[in-house]
Amino acid sequence: MSNANSTDERERESVHGAAGERLSTAPREERPESDTGAGGLPAMGVTGWVRWFWRQLTSMRVALILLFLLSLGAIPGSLIPQTSVDEVKVQAFKDQHTTLTPLYEKLQLFDVYSSVWFSAIYILLFVSLIGCIVPRTGQFVGQLRSRPPGAPKRLTRLPAHTTWRTEAEPDEVREAALLTLRGRRFRTHTVGDAVAAEKGYLREAGNLVFHLALIVMLVAFAAGQLFKSEGGKLVVEGDGFSNTLTQYDDFKSGSLYDPDSLAPFSFVLDDFAGTYEKSGPQRGTPRTFEARVTYNEGADGPDRTGVIKVNEPLVVDGTKVYLIAHGYAPVVTVRDPKGKVVSRSAVPLLPIDNNVTSTGAIKVMDGYRDKAGKKTQLGFKAFFVPTFAGHGEGQMFSQFPGPEFPVLALSAYHGSLGVDSGLAQNVYQLDTSKMKEFKDENGELLKKLLMPGEKLDLSDGAGSITFEGVEEWASFQISQQPGNGWALGGAIAAIAGLAGSLFIQRRRVWVRAVRGADGVTVVEMAGLGRSESARLPEELGDLAAALTATAPVAPESPEGSDSPQTSEKPETPESPQKPDAADEPPEPAPEPEQRRKPDGASRPDAPGETGAPEKKGDGATAPDAPHEAGSRPVDPAEAPAEGAEK
What we know:
Number of strands: 24
Distance between the termini: 70 Å
Strand content: 25-35%
Shape: elongated
Oligomer: single chain
Structural class: alpha+beta
């Protein structure tokens, strides 16, 4: 057979020649060589690639991927110290991890939120959301302006449907359907012999609100980073703060922030109240932690009182003042060899544990002269415990954070503090490289434990330092972030929109009312959801029950099933008889007078019977009875309409 086929092919080639070789019944698409790429595929060109990239970028899949990448990118920012938050912690991390530091610096992990890769993800997500929202908004507006589509030809083929017969007029049924559906907030109108209704447009609106809220949040975060200002200030009881750059202990701002936009206000720390649990397993746990202040807004604003608590900031002209830390400031008085007071101040010390064991330095930079009258500087290393509990491993420690038994340990130095070099210096550390120790009687470093009211006499009559008492200090963070309100509003709107898009179901309902061949109105009702919903049949049943108040089910005819009618029970199966009716004896024949069909033809007897029509289960029509559109019985599996009357 194969030899015969090859012979036939050679004959066709010899007859048709080159034209025969090109003979084909399949369509052939000719493309110029310039439009084809490698492998014969069409070349997309610059415009095609741009269009393809835009389609991919604005797809929901890519938007979700970018959102996931943004979440992953934020993880290093929360685990690794950030330069924009705390430079001291960043430097400490670099000192402890000398191997990882070069890699982290190349990946910009110390400045995650301002890095190139994080900004790229951020911008791409922003563009993707905009490209997704704009066309969908146009489509949604078009849907709002359009009307629900007309009813399908066969409503009984829809997953949820029901049908019944009524003596009401078709116009009355349609009018009642309009009122019923509008009362349940369906958008309705009449199309031909049916009423079309639709509901659930807020589902797409919720989807759009969710995407718009994400854009608002992105813009708010960006604005907050660009226009923010944030600074810290430690204030001792009785001292105050004015919102100017020179008053801050540290200050950071966004790249677009204008220092002239600082809100004019000031406050004074009147008192800090801190109480702690004194017994039980929660001993030492803070119970009261609040700063009482007197503040005024503007240059000449009236004095007002306020209380600043943890997570309850003082808000003045859009600027928030947070309470972030607390500690003690021993009050010391320094005298020169002549007994003249050189310095008297409350010196803040930094806590190093939960019991507020504190350390720091006391510096006397001006006003002191030694016995020879030469100007010099004094320095003291200070170690303070609010509740003395004895000596630990080389140093004393505190057993309670409250000032129950305060003790101050001092060691004395004299010389140059190094503050005249012009270099920044930590006020809580003492640089002793250019200083000499005061010696005690044994030639050791002069040091002493002091309780309130006690003093340390410097060697050789060089003066003294007295521990007068203890004041408390509070550390405040003053921040201004203009995008916080927008970010909060966007977050709330995103949650609301997401809830709407998940729980609101968009569905359509049609009600058709037509006059049957026997003059009785046939009502068909069906529903269709845009997504799977178990509530649609239940809702359709409720609508059918409400509609039967105006269009009640017509009573069965006295002749039983002789007249062409539909089942008045939507749950009636479509089979000609009940499954268990096979063994039942045939029912007696109706009255001798046969009822004629609507077309005038007399009804013939069923084969094998003596003129008695076949009885249908639950009032179903005979198999040869004519059915109008939608008047067939409904399978309960197809339309479990629970509210329709039977």
